[in-house]
Amino acid sequence: MSTLLHVSASPRGTSSDSRALAGAFLDSHRRAKPDVMVEELDLFDGKLPTFGRLAAQAKVAVFGGGQPSAEQQGEWDAARAVFDRFAAADAYLFSVPMWNAGVPYVLKQWIDIITQPGWVFGFTPEAGYTGLITGKKAAVVYVSGVYQPGASLAYGADFHSTFFNDWLRFAGFTDVAEVRWQPDLLTATRDADKTAALQRAADAGSRF
Ligand SMILES: Cc1cc2nc3c(=O)[nH]c(=O)nc-3n(C[C@H](O)[C@H](O)[C@H](O)COP(=O)(O)O)c2cc1C
After folding, report:
1. Which of 34, 73, 78, 183 minimizes the number of CB atoms within 10 Å of its CB?
2. Domain 3-207 belongs to what topology?
3. For ligand 1, is residue 98 a contact (CB within 6 Å)?
C-alpha cells in the first residue's frame, strides 16, 4: 500500500476553496487507486515547532559538515520529526491559498523546518544544490481570490506558485501536476468557474 500525504495550508476548514479542490482530487484519486492510503497534514493545527536560534545554528553547523551541539539537538530532532513525516509518504498533494501574493506563513515555516542539508538537499561548491526527494510525484492546488495570471499588476503579483513550484524543483520533484482556481472578478461566472475547477481537480486526481 502506498501513501499520499495531503499537506493543507488553509485554516478555513469547510469554507476553504483549496480544500474543496483537494477533496475533489482525493475523491477521484481514491476511486482510481483504492489501495492508496491518504494522510492529512494540517499545517494550521498548531503543532509545527518553531525554527529559531538553536535550530538555525544547528543547520549552519550541519551545512558546514559538523554536528548540532547538545544544546541545539532538541530543536534539530523536532525538525527531523517533521521531515520524517514528510519523507515517509510516497506522493504528495499540497493545497496552497495565495496570501499576500505569497504562501501562508505556516507553509513557509514547514519548508524552513524540513529543508535541511542531507534531508531535502545536498550541496557542493562545484555542483551547487541537489534535490534529494526524488522519484516521487506531487500535485498542487493553487487558489487566489484576486490575482489571475495575465491580469495587470493592480491585481497583484505571483510569488505564490512561483515560490512553491521552485521549492518543489529545489527539493527534487520533477513530476508535478497543478490545478489552479484563480477566479476572474470581472465576470459573473464564479459558480460555474468553481464547478469547472472542481472538475479539473477531479480529473487530475484520477490521472495522478
Ligand atoms: C490572509 C489572506 C491573504 C490573502 N491575500 C491574497 C492575495 O494577496 N491575493 C489574492 O489574490 N488573494 C488573496 N487572498 C484570498 C485567498 O487567496 C482566497 O480567498 C483563497 O480562496 C483562500 O484559500 P482557501 O479558501 O483555501 O482558504 C488572501 C486571503 C487571506 C485570508
Report:
1. 34
2. Rossmann fold (3.40.50)
3. yes
